[in-house]
Prior knowledge:
- By secondary structure, this protein is of the alpha/beta class.
- Helix content is 36%, strand content 11%.
- The chain binds pyridoxal-5'-phosphate.
Amino acid sequence: MEKLIFEKSVEGRHGNYLPPSDVPVKQIHELIPEELSRKKAPLLPQLTEVEVVRHYTRLSQLNYGVDTGFYPLGSCTMKYNPKINEDAANLNGFSQLHPYQPVESVQGALELMYKTQEYLAEITGMDAFTLQPAAGAHGELTGLLLIMAYHAARGDFQRDKVLVPDSAHGTNPASATLVGCKIIEIPSKENGEVDLEALKKAVGEDTAALMLTNPNTLGMFETQIIEIAEIVHQAGGLLYYDGANMNAIMGYARPGDMGFDVVHLNLHKTFSAPHGGGGPGAGPVGVKSCLEPFLPKPVISYNQQTQNYYFDEERSQSIGRMKAFYGNFGVVVKAFTYLLMMGGDGLQEVSAKAVLNANYLMNLLSKHYEQPFAGPCKHEFVLTSSPYKGNEVRTLDIAKRLLDYGFHAPTIYFPLIVSEALMIEPTETENKQTLDEFARVMAKIAQEAMENPKLLQEAPHNTPVSRLDETQAARKPVLRWKAE
Ligand SMILES: Cc1ncc(COP(=O)(O)O)c(C=O)c1O
């Protein structure tokens, strides 16, 4: 176990190489009033410079990220994030802005936001966008508030049910609950798609919306999406598109054309802003024109006459502000850089390659792990390790064993409708050699599961810590060192 820097401290050690200053300086007690000054020296760790440098360098090496290796976390689109995004976001003209600066002095930033909105609208087939939401789940909340405001404006107050397929991401029902709606779960058919008959039975005058991601969380495209949209619209409900899986279809299909009324996108997935570890993200929300009046304010707008960008605050039907100031601007700069760099053709190629990589890997892995739904898949796929259960090997054991081989584990136990699920999303930024190596290791683990299950049950063997109590770590995290 790695020691904390406080535990490495040895009294009297220090990192000063310079001799004491011979320039007269005021003593600290002459500068700080007695009642405010410390009575005891602070308990700082005492180490030499080299110890400090080694400590932090080592800690940085313990971290696993997409810059270190393959990160096949399904539903999370852990693609490589080009470093030019960081350079752009670090430009002084962006990073040194103050949110209260006069609008004339931030025209460039507003133009960037306005154009990002326009590009996202084009990619998704929507009429208008807001960049305010800070993440996908926050986008869901925003989108559902827009839907509820729309129904309320029409006097449709009885619409309090949100339909959610049983394969949906957990944030979908959670967001619908947050806006005060009840959830109706729609079962999937044997091929993983929404059961239309069940949907027809569930819709009615109380339907506020259907939330759907397409391709769904099984990586399968909902081929009946046009009929689904018709059924929901005929009942007076709206369609919400969870755009976390947009990496699969850019340039090929648009949620707006499928009949969706609201979408959220995850800039920190599809549009290559880094994520993971709770870092800043952005979940812009796009809407069809019927929902535009309700968008969060201020709306970034452009005055054709004066040729100026401005914050439009005059929005009487707006649901209000969803985020302090204008959203996570730095994340938007990164996504904008990516959009310019890729262009329309580039984005189309991204999706084509993401789908190709997923199908290639699925074909290799399905020789060793069961594939519950027939392919082809889109940008991700789901396998199950159920056949190894007889040998007392669970999906968790396989995920832990992967760490021994230097790979990040895929998403596990999601979606909930597949038992012992392994959800794998290779993304477009991985090459054939990496995919082949991952497949080789997964095949080896499958063999180990048959021949030496204990090896998996006790994995990982090569990491600084092995099996942790993840529930305790999440519920009662110990985040502070306390001096004795
Ligand atoms: C399908 C799907 N929807 C919604 C979300 C929520 O996005 P965020 O994590 O940015 O809140 C995720 C995140 O993993 C997702 O995979």
